[in-house]
Write a structure and sequence with these properties.
alpha/beta; 2 domains; globular; binds S-adenosyl-L-homocysteine
């Protein structure tokens, strides 16, 4: 059965669905269509909206408008309902990471691509002269170890949306057994990169290694502002897979992405155009570096962009 999308301004239906499902849409959409109707929306309305719309509203293209009208434009109720809808729609980050880690394609390991990536990132940070560094979406902390070995990096703040992953990083690095001087250089923060976070402001550099492809494309715009407009580090070193290279891995079936949790993988052109548009909008110059063995036709397995803040203000379009 297909889900019906019922535009707020159109009542043309062309789908087959269960009658009970259709009623849940009608229950919510009839008062929405009749924007003139006046009734008082209280907390019980949020409950009713979630009861009838919980299964389909989070992925409805007009969900903002529907929630807005159903709750008679009451801001606090709207944000309460949207938060609960999105929560229902967003898988538990701890579970996603654990399941994906088990299934992760081991192909990358064969050429120790990970080590090459970490090496390239540390080199970019050193050449930028960064001392206070953010590792955003740090995972189990593969980069932290390399940064700790280098006295140049005096403060290393790592962030991840998965609490369990942070605990693993802490255990793996034996942070609590380190000498206090060493331990004090690292700070672990639990947080999501799609929400503005004052704790991330004022750093020399931020590293975002193999993270953006784990975000829904719809949420990437929020991440761009959080990092480049609000946190605004001097340098950003960001890596992501180059999808063109996937055909070089025989163990990776054609058309498959490298990791179960990847929402997208970009060609070099796609990555360049995304990174350049960020540079223009937020005042960063951008250079691109290949990481891993480079093939004449399809490039290297990892693509890296180094953004340097050029002091130009945000361009509002
Ligand atoms: N940078 C690490 C881990 C990459 S895996 C490395 O290279 O080894 C991607 C990581 O990004 C995961 O740990 C995941 O929990 C985290 N992540 C995904 N979405 C995030 C978000 N919105 N905010 C913060 N971390 C996120």
């Amino acid at each position: 059965m297909e889900r019906i999308y019922f535009g707020a301004f159109s009542s043309r239906w062309a789908t087959r669905c269960r009658l009970s499902e259709l009623f849940t849409h009608l229950y919510v959409l009839i008062p929405v269509l009749d924007n003139e109707k006046h009734y008082w929306a209280g907390e019980d309305k949020v409950e009713k909206l979630l009861k009838h719309g919980g299964d389909w509203l989070s992925s409805h293209p007009e969900n903002d408008l529907i929630v807005n009208r159903y709750l008679r434009h009451r801001r606090n109720l709207m944000s309460q309902a949207m938060a609960q809808l999105m929560e229902e729609d967003t898988p538990d980050p701890d579970e996603v990471q654990e399941a994906a880690a088990q299934e992760e394609w081991v192909i990358e390991e064969r050429i120790s691509l990970n080590e090459q990536r970490m090496g390239a990132v540390v080199a970019a940070l050193r050449s930028a002269g960064a001392k206070r560094v953010l590792d955003l979406g740090c995972g189990e902390g593969k980069l932290i170890g390399s940064l700790l070995k280098d006295k140049e990096f005096v403060e290393i703040v790592v962030v991840d949306v998965s609490y369990r992953t942070l605990e693993k990083a802490q255990d793996r690095l034996r942070l609590y057994q380190m000498a206090p001087m060493q331990r004090e250089r690292v700070k672990l923060l639990h947080g999501s990169l799609i929400y503005r976070d004052k704790r991330l402001e004022g750093y020399d550099a931020a590293v975002v290694i193999e993270v953006i492809e784990h975000m829904d494309l719809a949420r990437l715009a929020a991440f761009e502002r959080v990092l480049f407009e609000f946190a605004k580090p001097g340098t950003v070193v960001l890596t992501t897979p180059n999808v063109e290279y996937n055909m070089k891995w025989e163990s990776l079936p054609a058309g498959k992405m490298r990791h179960r949790d990847h929402r997208f993988e970009w060609t070099r052109e796609e990555f360049k155009s995304w990174a350049n548009s960020i540079g223009e909008r937020f005042g960063y110059s951008v250079r691109f570096l290949p990481v891993g063995p480079e093939d004449a036709d399809v490039g290297s397995p990892t693509q890296m962009a180094v953004f340097e803040n050029n002091g130009n203000d945000l361009v509002i379009r």
